[in-house]
Specification:
InterPro entries: His_Pase_superF_clade-1, His_PPase_superfam, PGM_Phosphatase. The chain contains 8 helices and 8 strands; from the N terminus they run αβααβαβααβαβαβββ. The protein has 265 residues and is α/β, with parallel strands linked by helices.
Length: 265
């Protein structure tokens, strides 16, 4: 009887101490990685879309779009916000920067996180580029331009000098095709030794990742604003059914073993 009373009292005290933290889960730290997903800052194609609408999507002058003056200001703000977030949430310095080979992402990564250039690996991946096809803004320039402008980035995993994945411009990549690229990114991250990683990518790719590849709360399914960062903890557990993706500051998600139902609009 006394033991039962002690257990009840202890449970009350535990609940009081934990408050809104109804459940605290301990996992092996070796299976977890912190990933900071960042959308690029405003590009000239974004500015044109606001001015001219969809017709701007097919304008050749926006090929491999660069940042606007506002976009560069957004990067400066993101750099300051990152320093503040590191203090608030105890993030360590990144050990790896993964970036799309498109110019606006390379610029964003360099302006917002350039203090880490030369200190940690910077890797360009075709897998994290924007939706392929039809829109010239999403067609990259030959690699020679990027290598010259961003010498701190390793482009060795980008196989082709010319952009062969964008296609002939008559089609636009499907969500399903992008989801395969997203899964390839997760596999790449799982195989890397680094545990604190920045990924600078694009809005459609991020939307596909959080809606097609991972199961998550509605808040995390929403569109990323220009230069927005969302920091998550990826748990690459041995059992695919228990792999989880969680936002330390907010919520928990599960990596889908099958494609989830489409989210409600």
């Amino acid at each position: 009887m006394r033991r039962r009373s002690l257990l009840k009292t202890a449970q009350v005290q535990i609940n009081k101490q934990l408050g809104t933290y109804s459940q605290v889960v301990a996992r092996q730290a070796t299976s977890c990685k912190t990933v900071h997903f960042v959308r690029h800052a405003q590009g000239i194609h974004n500015e044109a879309y606001h001015k001219y609408g969809k017709v701007s999507n097919t304008m050749e002058r926006f090929e491999d779009a660069e940042l606007t003056a506002l976009g560069k200001e957004q990067c400066a703000t993101a750099k300051a916000e990152w320093a503040s977030a590191r203090g608030r949430h105890g993030y360590g310095p990144p050990e790896l920067v993964v970036v799309s080979p498109l110019r606006r992402c390379l610029q964003t990564a360099t302006l917002a996180f350039g203090q880490y250039a030369g200190q940690v690996p910077w890797v360009a991946l075709e897998e994290v580029r924007e939706r392929n096809g039809h829109h010239p803004c999403d067609r990259r320039r030959p690699l020679a331009h990027a290598r010259k402008e961003f010498p701190h980035v390793d482009f060795s995993l980008v196989k082709d000098e010319e952009d062969v994945t964008w296609g002939d411009g008559r089609w636009r990549e499907s969500d399903e095709e992008m989801a395969v690229r997203s899964a390839a990114l997760l596999k790449f991250l799982a195989g890397r030794p680094e545990r604190n990683i920045i990924v600078v990518t694009h809005s459609a790719f991020l939307l596909c990742t959080f809606n097609k590849v991972v199961v998550c709360e509605p808040e995390l399914r929403r569109w990323f604003a220009n230069c927005e960062r969302r920091s998550v903890a990826l748990d690459f557990g041995a059992d695919p059914a228990t792999r989880q993706l969680c936002q330390p500051e907010a919520s928990t998600l599960t990596i889908a073993t099958d494609e989830p139902a489409a989210p409600k609009s």
